[in-house]
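Hello forum,

I keep getting stuck at the same step: I have a sequence, I want structure tokens, and every attempt I make locally crashes halfway through. Rather than fight my setup again tonight, could one of you with a working pipeline run this one for me? It's a single chain of 139 residues.
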Amino acid sequence: MRKLAVLVFALAMTGGALWLTMALAMGTTTGSCATALLQGTLVEQDGTLAVESVPPGTVTKVTWPFGYGVGTEGGTLVITRLFTVVAREGDEVSVGGGMLSDDVTFNGCGQVTPGLMFPPEPTPSWRARAPLAHGAVHA
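Reply #2:
Ran it on my machine without issues. Output:
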């Protein structure tokens, strides 16, 4: 009976440790992560890295997911994970998460992925936009 109690306790501890590991990896203790996607180019802002939208225009501060950090390598700001460089200033990245309550900072959770997961749609040329602007419809 005592062996059974020890086994049950060990399984409970292992399950709790697994839950904690997963929660920390996702950056939250509730086990949930917002489902927005921030994509763009890493740019320096106030000594750290932020993401400039694609196409350029808006720079968003980021709270990087648990396990990620901003460091320097050869004078360039980099995103690291477990001491490994994931991306450098000027690289395009995609990161999941959502906006914090201040509506200024993006709270990242999950992975920081090099490159754009969903490339932006190309902007139509002036000739393609002109008929749309004037209400013309071509069949």
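The helical segments are 2-26, 126-133. If your local run keeps crashing, start a new thread with the error log.
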